[in-house]
Write a structure and sequence with these properties.
The structure is a homodimer. The first copy, chain A, is α+β, with helices and mostly antiparallel strands and about 220 residues long. Chain A is built from eight helices and eleven strands. In chain A, strands 1-8-3-6 form a four-stranded antiparallel sheet. In chain A, a hairpin with a 2-residue loop joins strand 10 and strand 11. The relative contact order of chain A is 0.13. Chains A and B meet through helix 4 of A and helix 4 of B.
Chain lengths: ~220, ~220
């Protein structure tokens, strides 16, 4: 059975674990389950369903919003040890926006049902306070995106995105299409392609078949 | 003394009031104070100081962010019965952005010191849960701004802003400069002026000395 593993992971990864009652601990262990998502699959598709909270063990998760026209913008990424609360937005009062969550790489995670988390929040101050910290942290991410979009020109945003992507992939060759970049940045494919041609002319990057090679990272940083 | 008044206002406006201990109630009453801000004054200037929470009794409050270049963008407005938590962001872990708060009209409010709110949050589950609701609600506001900026063209945003301003002022004549509108929308004065000339040509608005008259609200809504 996986309960023993869960207990070990919770103990290590949930800061409130030691502060809650053994009854609450058991509730969490008995209702949560390990889940695996192949790369590119949806973990949570907007507000309708209530997928629960995901505690990420391995892999990379992307949270984003989608417009009626199908345009996307990335809000934040979650890595190992992070917890995704917006896939359980049904339990939060006053949340009036839809966040989509998908696995960028293969993701191993623990799913905590929304109802279960809600239940222990109702009796455990430590969990309610932890939720405050989670919300503040994600809000800071979103504010960062907002500031970047409003106040940063597109060349800076694209340069920053390429550098960050290089770090996440731990490689100077990024396997990503112009369309995908446009979705991350809430822009259009044509705008991305035009800026990448400019970057290539300046010798910062080289476009290759289905990928982008970072040639001059210092040049990109200088932008 | 104003303590009796405070108790009455807290009882009416703080949803958690009845759920907390009389000790916590007394702490809140003894440390909070009524405050008045003239129109246009700063209630909280970014992250450095920790001004405390403001419970708005009368008037209109604006929360916004500011860039290094001095550009502004409005995040949300608070009216009577709303509570401003970002003026106490020092007590929140993981908040890494600066929100500025100012009085748009004369504002009467109750100031709850950050330390005092923090103290009762440490022992009162109802307060921690209320903070979650506040954070979720403000996060929804910010997401709305983000979506509007990313996905809505500037003509729509300006039309929406003028209509909203008309409702807030309860008048079809808005006393506001192009510069101020630009600050609300994170844009430049020139861009606002150009779009207002277009709106005037279409007969939606009329520019007057130091003000803007809304002539065709249905036309603006149609945008």
């Amino acid at each position: 059975m996986y309960q023993k593993e869960l207990q070990k992971d919770f103990q290590e990864l949930l800061p409130f674990w030691k502060s809650i009652s053994s009854h609450s601990q058991e509730t969490l262990i008995n209702h949560s389950e390990p889940v695996t998502f192949p790369p590119g699959t949806a973990m949570h598709a907007g507000g309708e369903e209530c997928s629960g909270l995901f505690l990420v063990l391995e892999g990379r998760v992307r949270a984003y919003i989608v417009t009626e026209q199908g345009k996307e913008i990335t809000l934040f990424r979650l890595l190992s040890r992070d917890i995704c609360i917006f896939s359980a937005s049904c339990i939060m009062k006053n949340i009036s926006f839809d966040v989509f969550v998908s696995a960028e790489t293969e993701v191993k995670a623990i799913r905590i049902p929304a109802q279960c988390y809600n239940e222990i929040t109702d009796s455990e101050l430590a969990v309610a306070k932890y939720t405050n910290e989670l919300l503040s942290s994600r809000m800071s991410d979103v504010m960062w995106v907002l500031e970047e979009i409003v106040f940063t020109s597109f060349d800076k945003r694209l340069a920053h995105f390429l550098l960050e992507e290089g770090e996440l992939e731990e490689s100077d060759v990024l396997t990503i299409t112009h369309e995908q970049i446009a979705n991350h940045l809430g822009s259009a494919r044509e705008v991305v392609s035009r800026m990448l041609r400019y970057f290539a002319n300046e010798g910062f990057v080289k476009a290759e078949r289905g990928s982008i090679r970072l040639l001059d990272k210092e040049g990109l940083e200088a932008i």
